[in-house]
Amino acid sequence: MKILITGRPASGKSIFARYLKDQYPDFKIIEFDECDSIKENENCIVVIQHQKFLPAPIKFDKFYQCTRVENESFQVDDGSTVQQFAFLDLEQYFVN
Fold it and tell me: Which Gene3D superfamilies does this UniProt record tie to the protein (predicted)?
């Protein structure tokens, strides 16, 4: 399964990706600069600003759009529901 997370800079994409990785521990998180490895990984979470930046058309099984709502929170839209997350609630997913 391939999961795509998009959004503007500082919208919570990478934090949400690490949150999803807890649910899918065997998945690899692929950031924009590693996009060439998407096709090689059957199970992955791809984090990129916009799908148009992908090197080739790729079919994703799940898609999430992150939007920063305010300094303390962001929302995640999967096309059918919108969830709001507080950055402090996901503090364990921050990487120093």
Answer: P-loop containing nucleotide triphosphate hydrolases
Place of tokens 């999430």: 64
> Could you tell me the two tokens for 56?
């080739």
Strands (E), the chain: 2-7, 28-31, 44-48, 62-70, 73-77, 82-86
**Annotated domain spans of the chain:** 2-93
Cβ proximity of 49 and 7 under 8 Å: yes
Report pTM: 0.89
Reported as a single tens digit per residue, the pLDDT across 9-59 is 999 999 999 999 999 999 999 987 666 667 778 899 999 988 877 777 788
User: The tokens of 89 are what?
Assistant: 């609630």
pLDDT of res. 82: 97
